[in-house]
Write a structure and sequence with these properties.
By secondary structure, this protein is an alpha/beta fold. The chain is 43% helix and 16% strand. It has a single domain, classed as 3-Layer(aba) Sandwich (Deoxyhypusine Synthase). Helix 3 runs parallel beside helix 8.
Length: 323
């Protein structure tokens, strides 16, 4: 597929390189992290410290482990790492965005493609291709596909299961039960790991739930059921830890609920955002201590870097540590 040149942007758009998920196997990456710990600088030391904290969190039998991440990652091969961490039961609760659901459903049934940041968006629009950074998403592999699959699930929940008031984690769990093993939602369902989506209406799945409710006025999302689920998890926890990949609502909801037990005991955060604008996404983990969202004695690290670059290395080292 060739796209016409406009405003200096690239005119080559060959939609034939399918985005594939990572399939990480342990090797000898731990030695690299050991060297990073002794390197003296700069962000590599934070990466090494972060790995050490994650390894300690994984081996702490008293620790309830949270994973939060932003939806955009699921459009990339990092979806395979998220899926495998959940498959391997490395976390007890997931907090994410509606976009993560959208991309997981879409990629279960259709392909995304590797593109470029510089592609011409006017031309992509004419070719009915969405661009997410340098990932290309054919329109028919996204909105219409998600509509078909989610509406089928909602009809089952309404007519077969008799659901009227329902939490997001119940909807997400049911959707996961219908997907293939390539899906992180499937493995969360399989391993009975709740997925909380505090911003459920901010995405394609949320829109489909609203559309369904227009024809079924007694069908309601009860978001307070999600908060009760989180409350039960938090107050039953002797210790808690979180691996937060990207900021926004998923990071904040993880920190927010952990303040009610005095804060996280372990916290690792990956971000590209700047602290200087006062945003939650840019705030390092240490700032959360002042809010009692992280304990004063917690082991914590903020890693400044792009998650799709760093996560494969961290996960490979965690696998290697498991032996």
């Amino acid at each position: 597929m060739t796209i016409k040149h406009r405003k200096g942007k690239s005119d080559d758009c060959h939609v034939n390189n399918v985005v594939k998920d990572y399939s990480i196997k342990p090797d000898t990456i731990t030695s690299i992290f050991q060297n990073m710990a002794e390197s003296g600088g700069f962000e590599s030391r934070n990466l090494s410290i972060g790995l050490d904290i994650l390894q300690s969190m994984q081996t702490d039998g008293q620790c309830t482990k949270f994973l939060s991440f932003v939806g955009a990652l699921i459009s990339t091969g990092v979806r395979g790492i998220i899926r495998d961490m959940i498959k391997n039961k490395m976390f007890d609760c997931i907090i994410t965005t509606c976009g993560a659901l959208d991309h997981d459903i879409a990629r279960t049934y259709g392909n995304y493609y590797a593109g470029e940041f510089g592609l011409n968006d006017y031309s992509l629009f004419k070719k009915k291709i969405h661009r997410l950074g340098n990932v290309l998403i054919p329109i028919h592999n996204y909105g219409p596909l998600i509509e078909e699959k989610v509406q089928a699930c909602l009809k089952d929940l309404y007519y077969k299961e008799g659901k009227r008031g329902i939490s997001t984690y119940e909807i997400v769990d049911y959707i996961g039960s219908t997907l293939s093993q390539s899906s992180f939602l499937y493995w969360a369902h399989k391993n009975e790991i709740p997925i909380i989506v505090p911003g459920i209406v901010d995405g394609a799945v949320g829109s489909q739930i609203w559309f369904f409710s227009q024809q079924h006025k007694d069908f309601k999302i009860d978001i307070l059921m999600d908060e009760t689920k989180l409350s039960d998890i938090i107050y039953d926890s002797k210790k808690s830890g979180a691996f937060m990949v990207g900021g926004g609502i998923s990071k904040h909801h993880t920190l927010w609920w952990n303040q009610f037990r005095g804060g996280l005991d372990y916290a690792v955060y990956i971000t590209t955002a700047s602290e200087w604008d006062g945003s939650l996404s840019g705030a390092p983990v240490e700032e959360a201590i002042s809010w009692s969202k992280v304990t004063t004695k917690a082991r914590h690290a903020t890693i400044h870097g792009e998650a799709s670059t760093l996560l494969p290395f961290l996960y490979a080292a965690l696998l290697e540590g498991r032996g």
